Amino acid sequence: MDIVTSLAKLLDTTFEFLDNDSNKNSKEDVIEIKKELLKVHSGIVLKILDLEKSRNLLQADILNNEIKGTSWLQRNWRPLTMLTFLILITLDCLGVLKHPIDPQMWTLLQLGMGGYVVGRSAEKVIPDVIKSLNKNK
After folding, report:
1. d(CA 56, CA 40)
2. What span, in angstroms and rounded, lies between the C-alpha atoms of 64 and 58?
3. What does the domain layout of the chain look like in residue ranges?
4. Distance between alpha carbon 82 and the CA centroid of its chain, in Å?
5. Cα distance from N-terminal residue to C-terminal residue, the chain
6. Predicted pLDDT at 3
7. Residue 94: its pLDDT value, please?
8. CA distance 86 to 94
9. What DSSP letter does each residue of 105-135 carry, written as one string?
């Protein structure tokens, strides 16, 4: 469950509590509390969207840098890797491989590719982020 959905459920639960609360709060107070909660919720959602936008821009920048890289291998390692796995999957489906691909290999593949991509991304992005932070000081 993503954070926006969790926040919405928390807000709904809070509103239900406020609506069913038989304590000292007047209807006007409850309305004011709900308004303030909605403002906070909106602010958090906007911040999350900004962060998601920044993350997507950084990912696009990383891919563009790889595509424009000077090394042939730098530009083509992802397609080569995916082509290799496509061949392995196809050979496995056709029963050509001596030993079928183990289900644990799929998990390892997912973790390995995800970790490698994140690691390389961080390696390329962190210096730019540090430069940017230093400029803002």
Report:
1. 24
2. 10
3. 1-68
4. 21
5. 36
6. 80
7. 92
8. 12
9. HHHHHHHHHHHHHHHHHHHHHHHHHHHHHHH
Contact of 75 with 64, CB cutoff 8 Å: no
Which of 89, 109, 86, 84 is CA-nearest to residue 100?
89
* Radius of gyration of the chain from its Cα atoms, rounded to whole angstroms: 25
Q: What is the pLDDT of residue 114?
A: 67
Q: Which pLDDT value is given to residue 136?
A: 61
Q: What is the mean pLDDT of each run of 10 residues along the chain (137 residues)?
A: 79 83 74 88 87 84 76 78 80 88 76 62 65 65
Q: How far apart are CA 61 and CA 121, in angstroms?
A: 10
Query: For the residues of 9-74, what is the DSSP string, one character each?
Result: HHHHHHHHHHHH--SS--HHHHHHHHHHHHHHHHHHHHHHHHHHHHHHHHHHHHHHHHHT-SSHHH
pLDDT score of 96: 93
